[in-house]
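# step 3/5: fold
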Amino acid sequence: MKTLIIGANGQIGQLLVQKIQQTNGLTAVAMVRKEEQAATFKKQGVETVVVDLEHSVDQIAAAAKGVDAIVFTAGSGGHTGADKTMLVDLDGAIKSMEAAQQAGVKRYIMVSAIGVHHRDKWLPRAPHYSAAKHYADRWLEQSGLDYTIVRPGPLTNDPGTGQVSIAVDLERASIPREDVAATIVAALKNNHTIGKSFDLVGGDTLIEDALNRFIDQ
């Protein structure tokens, strides 16, 4: 399965590219904004496309041509204003979904944020961020794409444990970025995650077991 990683140069994105490249049956295509970012991935032997989410839907669709799945793990970052959050985390996400439809790519995994499906859990210091994630997720659910929405808690750079908690609603708790990337890979490999949305935090259950328990509920 060839998978386009939108936001490949981000911290989750880089880990995800590595894990996909190490997984039998999966291949990554790294989508980045700058040529110098592309050069790093090309040195690793990773197919790379240079497209900005503020570019047109047609340009994003061209990048998605020939892939089997898309993972959206892009974000405007914590140092930008609300305007850039709306352009990347909301409009950029929706443009990538429109591009998926245009390119005929059905499988789509969204990296969202814990609790944003409930307005009363939106971050008081960054309601624009929570709103962007909320409405991008809502759009995805109504897009007709074979979606999975992963809503991780606050991210850390601790080594992954391979153990998580997964449920529709969880208390806010941290999770290593490495475990988020591993959960995305597991979701890509498991078609029973299609049409599912869940919170994700650190826990005591192996990732594939946690996914299967959630699916079976």
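# step 4/5: annotate
The chain has one domain: 2-216.
# step 5/5: archive (pending)
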